[in-house]
Design brief:
Order of helices and strands of chain B: EEEEEEEEEEE
Oligomer: heterodimer
Strand content of chain B: over 45%
Radius of gyration of chain A: 14 Å
Strand content of chain A: over 45%
Radius of gyration of chain B: 13 Å
Number of strands of chain B: 11
Number of helices of chain B: 0
Order of helices and strands of chain A: EEEEEEEEEEEE
Amino acid sequence: AQKVTQAQTEISVVEKEDVTLDCVYETRDTTYYLFWYKQPPSGELVFLIRRNSFDEQNEISGRYSWNFQKSTSSFNFTITASQVVDSAVYFCALSLNSGGYQKVTFGIGTKLQVIP
Amino acid sequence: DGGITQSPKYLFRKEGQNVTLSCEQNLNHDAMYWYRQDPGQGLRLIYYSQIVNDFQKGDIAEGYSVSREKKESFPLTVTSAQKNPTAFYLCASRFPGPGELFFGEGSRLTVL
């Protein structure tokens, strides 16, 4: 069974604050992929990052950074110096092979509101 | 520009009516997916198709049907058998394998 937990359903921060979105996953597979997507008010999910289970290297992309820790089954997402444009729903997702098909399980999402 | 187009963006229907949501992609992706999004439940998989003329049920396929006659198109029909069809529906596609999904802008269905 695979599961993704995003315990924070809604977060509000003031602009320029840092914010971390938590993601905890469950799987017995040793090969899997983790994703983060952003859903702005327009509705379309936008891909942010993919990590495979063999690469625990953290990643930074501008104001975004991701911390992947297999020991705690977590793949957390930090936004530094948040901006109003960061306001969106963020989804963490887990993808693994299920009978020749890549089954993707999404968390329930974290709604981030950045207040000016 | 390459992408996924969903239509209509908003749709209202009366109980007992079937409705078809359109999804077209020009990304040359083999795999296409339909998800349903409800508040507090994330995205749940309805149907997926890995190649033309083949599709599989996802986690919540009851009350829905699909077809995949062309690589570019994967329409979803919400039938009258779907007990609670009011939701936001998202179509996605990708190349085979564990790559990222590309999403359309969604269709919001409201049953009156």
